[in-house]
């Protein structure tokens, strides 16, 4: 028969062994059962969201553009804050445009894209598209940015027109002078 001291040592050894075994099996997680975040939300703008991936893409595009221009980069945290604020502003503007019926259809956008290509001395939109690809610019994203810019311009124009109130007497006074 074993002594009390030997029994306690054996029990302690079994407990330690069981603990080590449990710890080892916990660290050997099956990769199929492992959960990893794919993306995360960095801002909620009414019913829309801005994801980390979208913010990172925008920051990367701006960094590339600044480097291409030879402009020094601001601190990373300042650039991230500026980009997030800009994205929130753009999203709010897009939501307002949608609510108020301001939109740009594909035909109008195609005409604008043709004009941009001609202004940049490209004879066809295909040449312009190829140049954008050569510069690492995604054509679909560029096209949607142009749509957003047109919508922003229309919203500004509408805001200015709504504030312009010129009376008939003001017109008559101007014509008289």
List the helices and strands and how they pair.
Blueprint: H1 4-27, E1 41-45, E2 48-51, H2 52-69, H3 76-100, H4 106-119, H5 125-134, H6 139-163, H7 168-176
Antiparallel strand pairs: 1-2
Helix pairs in contact: 2-3, 3-6
Walkthrough of the structure:
- It is built from seven helices and two strands.
- With 177 residues, it is mainly alpha-helical.
- It has a two-stranded antiparallel sheet with strand order 1-2.
- A hairpin with a 2-residue loop joins strand 1 and strand 2.
SSE pattern = HEEHHHHHH
Quick one: how many beta strands?
A: 2
Work out the helix count: 7
What's the mean pLDDT score? Answer: 84
Question: Major β-sheet, in short?
Answer: 2 strands, antiparallel
Kindly estimate the percentage of residues that lie in beta strands according to DSSP.
Answer: 5-15%
């Amino acid at each position: 028969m074993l002594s009390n001291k030997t029994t306690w040592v054996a029990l302690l050894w079994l407990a330690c062994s069981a603990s080590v075994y449990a710890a080892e099996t916990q660290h050997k997680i099956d990769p199929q059962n492992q959960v990893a975040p794919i993306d995360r939300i960095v801002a909620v703008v009414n019913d829309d969201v801005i994801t980390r991936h979208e913010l990172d893409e925008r920051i990367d595009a701006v960094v590339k553009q600044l480097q291409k221009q030879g402009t020094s980069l601001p601190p990373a945290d300042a650039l991230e804050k500026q980009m997030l604020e800009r994205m929130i502003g753009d999203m709010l503007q897009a939501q307002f445009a949608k609510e108020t019926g301001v939109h740009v259809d594909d035909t109008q956008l195609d005409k604008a894209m043709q004009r941009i290509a001609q202004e940049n001395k490209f004879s066809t939109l295909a040449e312009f598209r190829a140049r954008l690809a050569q510069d690492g610019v995604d054509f679909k994203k560029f096209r949607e940015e142009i749509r957003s810019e047109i919508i922003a311009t229309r919203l500004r124009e509408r805001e200015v027109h709504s504030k312009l109130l010129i009376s008939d007497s003001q017109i008559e006074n101007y014509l008289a002078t």
